[in-house]
Amino acid sequence: KAGVTQTPRYLIKTRGQQVTLSCSPISGHRSVSWYQQTPGQGLQFLFEYFSETQRNKGNFPGRFSGRQFSNSRSEMNVSTLELGDSALYLCASSPRDLGYNEQFFGPGTRLTVL
Amino acid sequence: QKEVEQDPGPLSVPEGAIVSLNCTYSNSAFQYFMWYRQYSRKGPELLMYTYSSGNKEDGRFTAQVDKSSKYISLFIRDSQPSDSATYLCAMSGTHYGQNFVFGPGTRLSVLP
Q1: B34 min Cα distance to partner chain A (Å)
Q2: Nearest-angstrom CA–CA distance, B5 and B26
Q3: Cis? peptide before B81, omega within 30° of 0
Q4: Which residues does residue B69 pair with via DSSP β-bridges, in sequence order?
Q5: Which residue in chain B has the smallest CA separation from A40?
Q6: Is the pLDDT of residue A111 over 90?
Q7: Structure confidence at residue B63 (pLDDT)
């Protein structure tokens, strides 16, 4: 069974630009969550989508948004990039409800903002 | 003070050593406690989870939770070079991931 895939794996952008990251969950998984990982703040929850609806949202500004498609694939968008947005963005999928023992992480997208 | 603190590391040990990784927390509402392992250039993978206080063992790994002290530990026996990774603790007051609070991680190197 294929794992969670994320594209691209690496991305370099400049301040003010916008970026879209993509996540393909494990086949059959309907919940997709996004996390930001930085050395200073660690892993922080961004939002979760289930059946194309945002179910939960972390404490991030509105520049961070996402969506989920009918095939459960998800995209995350960050507009007006800031230097502090440089981070590893992780996607995790879950089969139905978001349970701690059912969450599988992808390898992440490393975003560098110059 | 951060909600979850973790020994910063990095930690280097010889192969075969017993490793102790620790986290402290401030929120007494936490009931679910997890340990994740993250290899370089990979996403975290769930190693252990426990509910409330007590110990849980899985092979060479033992997770320990002391809610009275707000302290959790992960012990690795007979450590192997393949255990070299960053270990993240995570905890939550509910079963649901959106409430997880992760520690910053401890980088472990097991030297052959």
Answers
A1: 8
A2: 9
A3: no
A4: none
A5: B104
A6: yes
A7: 96
Q: Cβ(A38)–Cβ(A92) under 8 Å?
A: no
The CB density around residue B25, as the number of other CB atoms within 10 Å, is 22
Note whether A52 and A69 are within 8 A (CB).
Answer: yes
Q: How many CB pairs under 8 A join A and B?
A: 63
B7/A36: higher pLDDT = A36
Q: What is the pLDDT of residues A64-76, one digit of tens each?
A: 999 999 999 999 9
Helix (H) or strand (E) holding A100: none
Instruction: Please report which confidence band the pLDDT of residue B94 belongs to, taking 50, 70 and 90 as the band edges.
Output: confident
Helix residue ranges per DSSP H, A5-93: none
Give the per-residue pLDDT at A97.
57
Q: H/E element holding A73? A: none
The two structure tokens encoding residue A1 = 């069974």
Could you tell me which of B12, B56, B54, B91 has the C-alpha nearest to residue A42? B91
By residue count, chain A amounts to 114
* A21 vs A6: CA distance, rounded Å: 8
Instruction: Give the residue-averaged pLDDT of B62-79.
Output: 95
Helix (H, G, I), strand (E, B) or coil at B82: helix
B112 at interface of A, judged by CB pairs closer than 8 A: no
